[in-house]
């Protein structure tokens, strides 16, 4: 028996860059696809939300003169590009996927609905939820909280490039220590930047636990599914 039956996996767009400074690193993409395929083969139902920060972020666009709403729409389109790339890599490895979009854009993807997603996951498809929430001023972290809650996932697995949540940023503060688990309230009290507050609060209010782990180490996704304590559980 595995720990989870249905998961929502959140991947950042930035991590898709690998060692590049922009865009999609095919090796990183293939690594992710292999890891996802591995846990799919264990019978886990998988929904994925992928960010767009490797291509465009609305907020950083405003400093360059972009209208915020148009910038956010560009960001949402960027998540669709990444979702198609991941879908393509997964399909190439023999896994069936469905790209669902929060904004209508057939034939690129089908328009999202909870029931379409659940039916597809139960039939063995991996669902990739693209275009975030479909609305500006949100992030893909909030998109993934929303989709995770809607599809009744057991957990949101937040794949990052650090191995969990620390008392301070471990890339800046060498004295930072890692939590094995932490409550939502403690995240607020310590002002920890795990996700934006909208995303965190949605998970708290709807009882969706979050597991933060390092997805850039090949095999880690399976370790999390196997219950190995390699990251930080937020509950
Ligand atoms: N975005 C949005 N609404 C959403 C999700 C995303 O407007 O519901 C836009 C926003 O501009 C954001 C960009 O898409 O900056 C890319 O998403 P995000 O920054 O979350 O990507 P990540 O940091 O995970 O790569």
From TrEMBL:
Per UniProt, subcellular location reads as:
Cytoplasm
* Binding-site residues, UMP: 52, 72, 133-140
Q: Which InterPro entries match?
A: AceGlu_kinase-like_sf, Asp/Glu/Uridylate_kinase, Uridylate_kinase, Uridylate_kinase_bac
Broadest EC class assigned to this enzyme:
transferase
Q: Which residues does the record give as ATP binding sites?
A: 10-13, 53, 57, 160, 166, 169
The keyword RNA-binding belongs to this UniProt entry's keyword annotation: no
- A GO term (biological process) for this protein? 'de novo' CTP biosynthetic process
- Write the record's keywords in alphabetical order, separated by commas: ATP-binding, Cytoplasm, Kinase, Nucleotide-binding, Pyrimidine biosynthesis, Transferase
How's its activity regulated? Answer: Inhibited by UTP.
Name the family the entry cites: Belongs to the UMP kinase family.
Q: What is said about its interaction partners and assembly? A: Homohexamer.
| Task performed by this protein | Catalyzes the reversible phosphorylation of UMP to UDP.
Q: What is this protein called?
A: Uridylate kinase
**What species does this protein belong to?**
Hoylesella enoeca
